[in-house]
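Hi F.,

I've been meaning to write this up properly since the lab meeting, where we talked about keeping a consistent format for the predictions we share between groups. The idea is simple: the sequence comes first, exactly as it goes in, then the structure tokens exactly as they come out, then a line or two of notes. No screenshots and no reformatting. I'm using this chain as the first example so we have something concrete to point to.
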Amino acid sequence: MESILQFTARQMGWTEELAQAQIIIDWARFVGDRLAGHTEIIGIQNGILQVQCDSTSWATELRRLRGEILTRMMEEYPDASIGDIRFLAPGAPTWRHGPRSVRGRGPRDTYG
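Output, unedited:
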């Protein structure tokens, strides 16, 4: 029998968002405490879980385990609609923000 909370979530169309939130909460269970300590979930966009890693080596290690982690997530939370995981290595700061950007030197254009 379905609980009132599950019924309401399904009726309101919240099942995907709730499943995605549960994946974020359970991240350490999926990758283990050691790996989770070197990562931070940035968000989920267009079915892609985006994870920021401490270093390039941790990003590389997690990319190697990507298939196994993704399979477990899809089995446990099929309503989450996660189709891929992107592990990001730390990089240089960027002035680019948002989905659209203009080519050029950015904010430095006004200084000289």
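Notes:
The chain has five helices and three strands.
The chain has a mean pLDDT of 85.

If this format works for you, I'll send the rest the same way.

G.
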